[in-house]
Amino acid sequence: MAVLVGCRVFFQAFRPRTANLEGARRLHDFIPHARTKKLQHVRPTANGGIRQYSSDFKSGDDLSVRYLDGEDSGIVVFGINRPKAKNAISKNLVKMMSEAIESVKKNNKVRSVILCSLVPGIFCAGADLKERAKMHQSEVGPFVSKARALITELGSLPMPTIAAIDGAALGGGLEMALACDIRVAATSAKMGLVETKLAIIPGAGGTQRLPRAIGVSMAKELIFAARVVDGSEAKSLGLVNHAVEQNNSGDAAYLRALELAREFNPQGPIAIRMAKLAINQGIEVDLTTGLAIEEACYAQVIPTKDRLEGLAAFKEKRPPRYKGE
């Protein structure tokens, strides 16, 4: 019964809400002069429009949220943009990302989310240690809890999430990527959970997600040694799904992530969400319970209009037009 209730609650996320911006294909085109000028944070409004934070919201450019359109409609790109801090995780970035995640979580028009960096050579350098140094000891625990909750929310998004790692992903930056369903890295990108160098441990899910990704023994080795690996080694370890040679623009991983999102886009969006739920919940339990979870999730797709559209399209020998209904 708990499984059925969980799937039913999850299924309620499919309420229509649209929010599209003119699509960008390369990171340079993300927003004009994205690599040289500050970006504004944008959010969808309740009626499907776009709201930009006013200029007095001083740190609103730490994160850019882009809703692609045209053939890429349904793909949302989160672009971290803290060049002076190497995209380090600050209080404000946590706040911005939490709001962005909340906005897409309830939007059934969103079919996939790409998390990337707009700063060349950097994905995310982990915690903002300069900000951390100014915190009172009593503030550190609550902040880490908020960062952990943010990464948990990222991992709990109902649609596929793809981390595009075109540069260094260290500490909390790698933990953020580990919360995504799929990781794509440039071969030159550096990755590692390096917290033991600072006499602490990964505190935002790294000790739990890394072993699930690459195995317990290897995860222990990397964490104990605070070892940093490149994209090629990360691929051999199973830490990333794809490793691609970096291009002159520095966005090879992003472009590969976009290709993957385009592969997901034509498929039934409710089916993909239910498949993700079945996999994520099922992998944590025994096989019998996992099969029950799969059955409960399958039951959610049976009454959908998309399932009927898929059958009709197959019969008529045409591409299906899924609406997430």
Main attributes of the structure:
ClpP/crotonase-like_dom_sf, 2 domains, Methylglutaconyl-CoA hydratase, mitochondrial isoform X1, Enoyl-CoA_hyd/isom_CS, 325 residues, acetylation, 12 helices, Lyase 2-enoyl-coa Hydratase, Chain  A, domain 2, lyase, six-stranded mixed beta sheet
Describe this structure in words.
By secondary structure, the chain is of the alpha/beta class. It has 2 domains: 63-265, Alpha-Beta Complex (2-enoyl-CoA Hydratase, Chain A, domain 1); 269-316, Lyase 2-enoyl-coa Hydratase, Chain  A, domain 2 (Orthogonal Bundle). It is built from 12 helices and 12 strands. It has helices at 2-11, 91-105, 129-133, 137-155, 172-178, 206-214, 216-225, 231-237, 252-264, 269-282, 287-301, 305-316, and strands at 42-44, 50-52, 63-67, 75-80, 112-117, 122-124, 161-165, 168-170, 182-186, 190-192, 229-230, 242-244. A 6-stranded mixed sheet has the order 3-4-5-7-9-12, sandwiched between helices. A 4-stranded mixed sheet has the order 6-8-10-11. Strands 1-2 form a two-stranded antiparallel ribbon. A hairpin with a 7-residue loop joins strand 3 (63-67) and strand 4. Helix 2 runs parallel beside helix 4 (137-155). The longest helix has 19 residues, at 137-155. The model is unreliable at 1-24 and 30-59 (pLDDT under 50).
